[in-house]
Write a structure and sequence with these properties.
Blueprint: H1 4-11, H2 13-24, H3 34-46, E1 50-54, E2 59-66, E3 70-76, H4 102-118, E4 125-132, H5 140-146, E5 157-164, E6 171-174, E7 181-190, E8 194-195, H6 205-223, E9 230-239, E10 245-246, E11 249-258, H7 261-281, E12 285-294, H8 301-314, E13 319-322, H9 332-335, E14 340-346, H10 369-385
Length: 387
C-alpha cells in the first residue's frame, strides 16, 4: 500500500521527468555548473523556496521551515566527461553526460522540495535541501562543509539516495558501510633525459616508475590479507615522446579503495614509503600529489533502520536489502559530522539485458524511480520534523 506522500509524488512524475530530461541535455562537470544552477534556482523560485547559491562551487542550499531541529537531504548535480551514446531522444551533445544519474537526483530533489513545501505548515524544524556539485571529483561536499553547511542551523541527521542502474525498480539497498574510501594520487618522477643509445648518461624515470608499480602490486599481494576489502589500481601511465629518447619525466596515477580507516591510513603511508624509497634507489626525484581523499562512507545503524521504516511506509511493496561496494561517495564527508543514512535506489530499465553499469556511455535509467526518490526524501523530512 502506498501512503499519501507517495501518491502525491506519483502525481508529480510527469513534471519531474520533464525536469530530468532538460537537465540531461545540459550536463556540466566539476565545480562550475552555471546552467544547472540556473535551472534549479528557477524552479526553487517558482516554488517560493528560499535558497543560497555558493558561487565559487555551484552548490545550492535550500531551506524549508523554521526551528532549531534540522534534517538534511542531499542530491548531487554534476556529470561526467563522457560522450553520450545512449540513443535517448534527449541525449546530451556537448561531450559530457549524466552517466551516473545525477540528473535523476536533481529532479527527485526538486520533486521532494515541492512536496515538502506543500506540507511546510506541518514542520517543526528546518529541512535543509542540498543540491551539490562536484561529487564525481570528490570536491563538492568538502566545499560546502568549509562554507558551514552543517551549521546555521546545525544538521542533526542526513539522508542521501543514489540511483543504481543494475537493480530493478522498487528495490533499495543500504549498509552501515555502503561505499569505500578513496585516495587518488599522482606520482611524478623526474630523472635525466638522454639519447636512447647512451642510457648510462641519464636517469630513466620509466624504469623507476615500473619498479614502483610492481612494488605497489606486491604491497597488495604481501601486506594485505585476503579477508580485507582493498583495491589499489594504477590506471594512468605516461612517459616519453619517441622510441630513441629516455624522457626527463614519467607520471602515473592511481586510486586506493578501502573500507577500514586503519588499513586506509597504513596503505597511504606505505604508498608514500614505497614510492620514495624506490625512487631514491634509482636516483630519481619523486613527487606525490593527492588528487582525492575521501573517507569510507559509514552510516549510522539507527538512522539506517529508521529510514528503512520510512521507505516501507511510503510503499510496502518496495524491497529493502543490502548494498556494499568498492565505489566511493563524498556523502561520506557529511556522515563524519552527523548521523547519516545512504540508500541505493534501483533504477534499472525494464529489460535486464539492457541494464548497464554506471559511467557507461550507453546507460539509460528508469524514470519511474523519480517518484520513489522524491517520496522517500519528503516522507523522511515530514516524519523527522512533522507533528
Amino acid at each position: 500500500m502506498k501512503n499519501q506522500i507517495m501518491l502525491e509524488a506519483e502525481a508529480l512524475l510527469k513534471e519531474m521527468t520533464a525536469w530530468r530530461r532538460e537537465l540531461h541535455q545540459i550536463p556540466e562537470i566539476g565545480l562550475a555548473l552555471p546552467q544547472t544552477v540556473a535551472f534549479v534556482t528557477k524552479k526553487l523560485k517558482e516554488m517560493n523556496i528560499q535558497y543560497t547559491v555558493h558561487e565559487t562551487s555551484s552548490n545550492i542550499v535550500a531551506c524549508i521551515g523554521q526551528g532549531s531541529t534540522c534534517y538534511m537531504i542531499r542530491g548531487d548535480m554534476d556529470a561526467l566527461p563522457i560522450k553520450e551514446q545512449s540513443q535517448e531522444p534527449f541525449a546530451s551533445v556537448n561531450g559530457c553526460m549524466h552517466a551516473c544519474g545525477h540528473d535523476m537526483h536533481t529532479a527527485m530533489m526538486l520533486g521532494a522540495a515541492k512536496l515538502i513545501k506543500a506540507h511546510e505548515s506541518e514542520l517543526h524544524g528546518v529541512a535543509k535541501l542540498v543540491f551539490q556539485s562536484a561529487e564525481e571529483i570528490f570536491a563538492g561536499a568538502k566545499a560546502l562543509i568549509n562554507d558551514g553547511v552543517m551549521e546555521h542551523p546545525h544538521v542533526d541527521a542526513a539522508l542521501a539516495l543514489h540511483v543504481f542502474s543494475q537493480k530493478p525498480l522498487g528495490t533499495l539497498g543500504g549498509h552501515t558501510n555502503p561505499c569505500a574510501g578513496v585516495y587518488g594520487f599522482r606520482i611524478k618522477l623526474t630523472g635525466q633525459g638522454v639519447h636512447g643509445s647512451s642510457p648510462e648518461g641519464g636517469i630513466d624515470p620509466i624504469n623507476t616508475a615500473i619498479h614502483i608499480h610492481l612494488g605497489l602490486q606486491e604491497l597488495m599481494a604481501r601486506e594485505i590479507s585476503g579477508f580485507n576489502e582493498v583495491a589499489l589500481t594504477i590506471g594512468k601511465f605516461h612517459a616519453g615522446s619517441a622510441a630513441n629518447i629516455i624522457p626527463e619525466t614519467a607520471e602515473m596515477e592511481g586510486t586506493l579503495r578501502v573500507f577500514d580507516p586503519k588499513i586506509r591510513e597504513r596503505m597511504i603511508r606505505r604508498i608514500h614509503e614505497i614510492t620514495e624509497n624506490i625512487a631514491s634507489a634509482y636516483r630519481t626525484k619523486a613527487e606525490i600529489e593527492v588528487l582525492s581523499d575521501v573517507p569510507p562512507l559509514i552510516c549510522d545503524e539507527k538512522e539506517l533502520a529508521w529510514c528503512r521504516e520510512v521507505i516501507l511506509d511510503v510503499d510496502d511493496s518496495l524491497t529493502v536489502d543490502t548494498f556494499h561496494a568498492m565505489g566511493s561517495e563524498d556523502f561520506a564527508c557529511y556522515s563524519e559530522l552527523a548521523p547519516a543514512a545512504f540508500y541505493m535506489l534501483g533504477a534499472g530499465v525494464e529489460d535486464p539485458k539492457e541494464r548497464l553499469p554506471q559511467h557507461n556511455p550507453k546507460i539509460r535509467f528508469n524514470e519511474d524511480v523519480l517518484s520513489i526518490g522524491a517520496a522517500v526524501y519528503a516522507a523522511a523530512v515530514l516524519k523527522r520534523l512533522g507533528n
